[in-house]
Amino acid sequence: MAHKDGIFLMNCWYVAAWSHDLIDGRKLARTLLEVPVVLYRGDSGRVVALDNRCCHRAAPLDLGRIEGDCLRCMYHGMKFDPSGKCIEIPGQERVPPKLGVRSYPVVERDGIVWIWMGDEDQADPAKIVDFPAMRDPAWRGIPDYMHYDANWMLIVDNLSDFAHLAFVHTNTLGGSEEYAYKTKPVAIERLEDGFRVERWHLDSDPPPYHRKVIPNKTDKVDRKNIGHMQIPGMFFLYTTFAPAGSGLKDGNKEGARSYCNCQFMTPETRRSTHFFWNYLHDFDLDDPNIARSLRNSIEEGFMEDKAFIEGQQKLLDADPEFKMLAIGADAALSHFRWVFDERVKAEQQAAKSAAQPMAMPMSQRATA
Amino acid sequence: MAHKDGIFLMNCWYVAAWSHDLIDGRKLARTLLEVPVVLYRGDSGRVVALDNRCCHRAAPLDLGRIEGDCLRCMYHGMKFDPSGKCIEIPGQERVPPKLGVRSYPVVERDGIVWIWMGDEDQADPAKIVDFPAMRDPAWRGIPDYMHYDANWMLIVDNLSDFAHLAFVHTNTLGGSEEYAYKTKPVAIERLEDGFRVERWHLDSDPPPYHRKVIPNKTDKVDRKNIGHMQIPGMFFLYTTFAPAGSGLKDGNKEGARSYCNCQFMTPETRRSTHFFWNYLHDFDLDDPNIARSLRNSIEEGFMEDKAFIEGQQKLLDADPEFKMLAIGADAALSHFRWVFDERVKAEQQAAKSAAQPMAMPMSQRATA
Amino acid sequence: MAHKDGIFLMNCWYVAAWSHDLIDGRKLARTLLEVPVVLYRGDSGRVVALDNRCCHRAAPLDLGRIEGDCLRCMYHGMKFDPSGKCIEIPGQERVPPKLGVRSYPVVERDGIVWIWMGDEDQADPAKIVDFPAMRDPAWRGIPDYMHYDANWMLIVDNLSDFAHLAFVHTNTLGGSEEYAYKTKPVAIERLEDGFRVERWHLDSDPPPYHRKVIPNKTDKVDRKNIGHMQIPGMFFLYTTFAPAGSGLKDGNKEGARSYCNCQFMTPETRRSTHFFWNYLHDFDLDDPNIARSLRNSIEEGFMEDKAFIEGQQKLLDADPEFKMLAIGADAALSHFRWVFDERVKAEQQAAKSAAQPMAMPMSQRATA
């Protein structure tokens, strides 16, 4: 994996799948950080993640068969337990004790399957970010997925930057060009693992996606946005709309409607990204069409971004020497890229200092 | 752009588009000489060509918005004037004076948009080749476009070589195998910027494309062809048919019908080409079907060539060590390749001698 | 061809095509061992194989015209005889005596077109493997073809290994998982040019493909399999079914039904393979549906393999550092890969020792 050095942050939890991706015995083949992985739910209910490549002759394990919590390669019948250890070779009595494929720590929580691609010893579930709205019956949403032909950091950039709302999303998520020209970029709170941003719009028109799901579509609203971007690429956005002048800033939540939005970017390769998102709402919970409408509106907005983001990737690929410029509005993304790079460097340094290489697959250990 | 050294001739005018490619506010994304360019017509009517890559974060500018003669990037709202200079950054008072994208000199003439991809200081409109038939009401034609998955020089080779007519185009543009076997290749006039060739066929059958648009389809004709191939890849062909024996060689044009054909090859990349062409005629000008018929016939002929030319490109890609051989019929193309290479070498030499690199994008200057 | 050193075995006969691929004057463009070749049947009936690239300007010769046993390039009319020698250049009296394209020794036998891609002097037809069933009226089958996006050796591996039958082909070609778990891998006979394997199943159910074409579908059978894998990648499988207990092992063939199966793997590139096969039978020869049914059954089985084999290729491409492991069942394929590698090494050594390079195309000789 030497060629991936410095590209990905290895020692952190990534979203690998939604829980519902693994229904009906599906063996999900998904490349994560340029590693082909197979994910499946064993008969006990446990989710397992293994290298999607048999240690024998590189057959894809997603063509295999789930047996209990184990997976059998259906090319020559080798059987692997959830730790990746080979526990049966047809026609052969002795199985070398260290033979197997690499398994990856997995935690399933609130409908999300988290995976740890780095050093197994550091895979502490306590480090998994908590997003309580996903399990709170006071919130409702539809988890969704998109695939981007672009480096995940270009999506992080996009989400880090409120300036683009005015230009890209005027007719979907909302954003005012007029406002963009006359205001300074909003200040961010620099954090060690990303940044936090708070933004208020008072006495303004409700944005298109909100207007679609509320009764009084033309009443002015006060709006509060709190965004939080976290390493390696997770964005949480908390939005509250209240009737203009109703005192939201002073804590009065009467007539308020809130949204809770999570977005997870997991690198597939350095040029493509798995994008998981859920836009939850806390009102009219008995009406399933609210969540559907929001899902559609947000996706429409994401598609507007996608054209730019995948366009950027193509142009960067075409000319690797191009250097991006920073403008005033880029404070957030610049900070995020900086703290991310520091983390990657620290990880690299730690790996070099350690006596043993960080991520040696079990199969290689077996033959060493 | 160092990797393109010696591949393209930079300091010359290329056809970038037909004027009609820019109607209805279209922002045309077109890669020229491996540079992504966006072309658009400003509100004043002026055609502008800019790098199709925002200097900020590489967003494609063809997703932008025309404002007057300027173009605004619709990702974060940076606005560029026709010279490429950035004149507005939303939410930021100061715009660095040298910030911007590269603009390319453009001249629109007779329905053709010419572009200069090299050193701006040398972009003299007087160097643009004149093709008066394009503006002369005595001529009528339909400008058209094809895309080739092949290096432009393979198309130049094709057009430089009358020998292929007999084999490739017997049933479309015409050409006689029998004649090909018994005659010597026609002599060319070697020019500094290409070559000129004159060819006569006396008392012969009209070729298929001509036969389709004339009343007396079986009468023998005398035919005069004058071809002119010019650097960097422009071919002009003047053809006159007259009744056999009517004295065309002595200057008698009674009963003569003439064609005027321009073909412009502009490299998209070293492996693909924009091919612009117009086959004009000077007779029966009130019948629009003549131009349509000719357009179809010529395109049919080009498609016959395309199979060979794109086949050559694939075979050359598969084995970069293959060396082409020259035969007697290759005098024209050999001369053309030679004068072209000399021009490229001279350009390279001049660039090396100059104190400043030739083609430094404005955006890089801004950050230097 | 230096970059192909050590990849392919050059000095051996490969299957280039079935005879029926060349009906109706077809000029078959087929890449063999990464060399673009054109195959055609001349008017005399003789099959000719030439480089599918004109020595003049790299035009594809499969766009050419068969004239007698010669092929004329239809770009500029150069004509090549079956030895590859150029014998006519239109408009040019003198043809350089050594000008031409490379031709490849070809032998057509029993419906198979064999080609020799290596040193012409060593191309001895006596080295062609004989498969008499192809010409014997006591056998009937349908020759067929599949294309694999995988290195040929992965297909050889697959066919070398009976262990996979139980897991991949339970419902098509047959194979019992239960049996696979409790038995040792079958012993092979190591040969200098591959291996031979003999396998018996007594008193067992007929496998699905056999059951489809016999009347007594549930009667137990005794089954004998003899497989023979030969360099460079040819597999012959002789299978006989007889009523259980009828004495097949003692030579009694009453009530026996036999199959004769040939499979030829010819590298297209190092990542793709031409796969030729014919599954012949010796019973009910007047019923054409037997051969059709077998063809369908076997193809269904091959498609099961293809998913694994092409999956392996993708995973190997994604991580060139992956090393396969051998298990007990791999004795056959391990031996075959070893004897194959020895042959390639010997060939390399011989080529280095020789004064002249092995495979210099005629066109290069002509210009040297």
TrEMBL record, chains A, B, C:
GO terms for molecular function: 2 iron, 2 sulfur cluster binding; dioxygenase activity; iron ion binding. Residues 13-115 form the Rieske domain. InterPro entries: ARHD_Rieske_2Fe_2S (IPR015881), Cholesterol_7-desaturase (IPR050584), Rieske_2Fe-2S (IPR017941), Rieske_2Fe-2S_sf (IPR036922), VanA_C_cat (IPR044043). Keywords: 2Fe-2S, Dioxygenase, Iron, Iron-sulfur, Metal-binding, Oxidoreductase. The keyword Transcription does not apply. It comes from the Bacteria. SUPFAM superfamilies: Bet v1-like, ISP domain. The keyword Repressor does not apply. This is Aromatic ring-hydroxylating dioxygenase subunit alpha.
